[in-house]
Amino acid sequence: MDANWNLIGHEWAVQLLKTQIAAGQLRQAYLLTGSPGIGRRTLALRAAQALNCEAPPAPGEFCGECRACRGFARGEHPDLLVVARAEGDRDLRIDAIRELRRELSRAPLEARMQVAVALNFEDASVQAANALLKTLEEPNQRTVIFLTAADEDRLPPTIVSRCELLRLRPVAADVLAAGLAHRGVEPGQANLLASLSGGRPGLALRWQEQPELLERRAEWLDACERLLAANRVQRFAFAEQASKDRASLRELLLVWLSFWRDALLRAGGSSATLANPDREAQLDDLAQKFGLEAIHGWVQRLESTLEQLETNVNARLAMEVLLLGLPEGMPN
Prior knowledge:
Layout (H helix, E strand, L loop, with lengths): L10 H13 L5 E5 L6 H13 L14 H8 L5 E4 L10 H11 L9 E5 L7 H12 L5 E7 L7 H4 L3 E4 L5 H10 L4 H10 L4 H9 L1 H17 L4 H11 L3 H22 L12 H30 L5 H10 L8
Parallel strand pairs: 1-4, 1-5, 2-3, 3-4
Helix pairs in contact: 1-2, 2-3, 4-5, 7-8, 8-9, 9-10, 10-12, 11-14, 12-13, 13-14
């Protein structure tokens, strides 16, 4: 296994965790923040492997081949506990945290250390967050807890204060492209994925492994262009369909936001590198036809809607309001 736990980027976070594991000074709880697809969950699983490897090649490292390494890598080890908001629920419920607490109170079944991963903990209800707080205050010494969230500001300060905070940032495009190429991705495709993913290794790898996701991105961008010329009934119909899955809606809006930020750069005369280089001609056309002010207003509406989706706002209503604010008129 390579020195960076087979991760692309985030070397500082890997080194910190490796050093703590090697010295036997691992914290009881960590908060990993960053955008979805940045590598939060993967980093937690790599730490679980390093903690429990049966034949580590060096302190803080793991072999990747033993039973424990394979189980934690797949997310299927009996001493790995993963909780997240259930599909269809608006938040991570207290019942899920109560069950997690019950599991954490026991000794590990096979591994040296039990590892819990609470995904997107900003989704936790107030009651669920308070329930986990009790475990963070009195942790089982053979347990390590990893919380993931987009931003620490979305969590109660009492939770944040009891965790070691690791902020994961986007990986530089050239570093990400090189990492993808090292994994066998064709260089041109590696450069494209590095740009489109906004420096998020997990997202880039997911797109590489599931090309249908890239096709969905193209469909979302094409739909946004069609909506520019759509009437209110058509826009509301799109809003109804898109808002059925809140997580998918958030991904759609992130794709739109990345695209329209590129359009904003072009409208402002910037020569900055585009996040969507495969749509350069379309971006230039939109920038010329709509102009800086209209595009800037639309970008602000997108950002505001994404923020609203982090609350309990009605997703369909938020989407309807957003689409009513699309820039006026269809480019000729």
